[in-house]
Design goal:
The protein is globular. The model has no long low-confidence stretch (mean pLDDT 97). It has a domain of 128 residues: Formyl transferase, N-terminal domain (Rossmann fold, 3-Layer(aba) Sandwich), CATH 3.40.50. The chain is of the alpha/beta class. Helix 1 runs parallel beside helix 6. A seven-stranded mixed β-sheet has the order 3-2-1-4-5-6-7, with helices on both faces. The site of glycinamide ribonucleotide (GAR) has 17 residues, from helix 1, strand 5 and helix 6.
């Protein structure tokens, strides 16, 4: 059984979808812990599903490295096979990326390499394109530059707002994330170290 740690910053709706998938006896992975960089609303999902959680508050640390060291200590305690950044709105320090990549995934609400960064949905709308997408990638040292494991296009509709578009992208992200975690757990998808 593949063990997964999920890190969040926000509402954790994608986390919730993974928790729901993972509670099925035939799903080959289990979420063993949920972590956050703040008192994120999404931690309530972990509590509801009886999954342990921890918070490493970004603002209580002097540097990205100090924050990452504490995050690394928390993760090490749970020793997960896979770490999923599911709406964690912080860049991990290189030392933590080096420790977990390629067993370190990120979901992103755009069709990478288009529109990387913290505002993928807003940037796609601002660009005036007719479609964007959702991606699941391996985290490397760049900002959303790692190998793409799964992605799918999502159309942008007339009158879309950042919220309405994001709400249409998220179900696609959830499906891709669950499929990728399942494929890693079964060995159908092999994670190879990034050069
Ligand atoms: C998701 O769309 C995720 O891909 C995005 O934050 C959202 C979290 O939603 N992450 C990024 O934009 C990272 N650059 P959720 O908290 O409802 O799951």
């Amino acid at each position: 059984m593949l063990t997964v740690a999920v890190l969040i910053s926000g509402t954790g709706s994608n986390l919730r979808a993974l928790l729901e998938a993972a509670r099925h006896p035939d799903f080959p992975a289990r979420v063993v812990v949920v972590g956050a960089d703040r008192e994120a609303d999404g931690l309530a999902h972990a509590e509801e599903f009886g999954i342990p959680s921890f918070t490493v508050p970004w603002h209580e640390h002097d540097s990205r490295e100090a924050w990452g060291e504490e995050l690394g200590r928390q993760l090490a305690f749970w020793n997960p096979d896979l770490v999923v950044l599911s709406g964690l709105m912080r860049l991990l320090p290189p030392a933590l990326v080096a420790e977990y990549s390629p067993r370190l995934l990120n979901t992103h609400p755009a069709f990478l390499p288009e529109f990387p960064g913290a505002h993928g949905v807003r940037d796609a709308l601002a660009a005036g394109v007719s479609e964007t997408g959702a991606s699941v990638i391996v985290v490397d040292d760049g900002v959303d530059t790692g190998p793409i494991l799964a992605q799918e296009r999502v159309p942008i509709l007339a009158g879309d707002t950042e919220h309405s578009l994001h709400e249409r992208i998220k179900p696609v992200e959830r499906r891709l994330l669950i499929d990728v975690v399942r494929a890693i757990a079964t060995g159908e998808l092999a994670l190879t170290p990034t050069p």
